């Protein structure tokens, strides 16, 4: 069972609420509303009731939920949940660590743009099961040649462990 807690109007929303789960032969859940209404356990009630195995959301929603007691999450049976995917903005390491520890599942951050149609950087779980690094969106996805470039001289690639732009 797949649960995408995004707005269905966003590319991620209709792609991951409607098309992707059905193409993969999975059931999907359509949920309209906030992660805190009628209470901060609404998503976890859905995970428990429908035995959700994969969930997709945005870091902002997780940061909102982080303000509530973790007991509100842990009182639900989340044993069916295998992985949480997050995208839409950078996922900071403290938030990634908090949600991974609270849910006891791997958190897979991914970076993409509406125009790209699918992730540019991520960990392709099931194809590439390398460990995730909290605070990192992963590695270039198939079809992308991502390089870190020097901000001053964009033609020059940046050495490993240095800052730059891409």
UniProtKB/TrEMBL annotation:
Cross-referenced InterPro entries: AMP-dep_synth/lig_dom, ANL_N_sf
Gene3D superfamilies, sorted: N-terminal domain of ligase-like
GO molecular function: propionate-CoA ligase activity
Domain AMP-dependent synthetase/ligase: 2-151
PANTHER family registered for this protein in UniProt: ACYL-COA SYNTHETASE, ACYL-COA SYNTHETASE SHORT-CHAIN FAMILY MEMBER 3, MITOCHONDRIAL
Protein name: AMP-dependent synthetase/ligase domain-containing protein
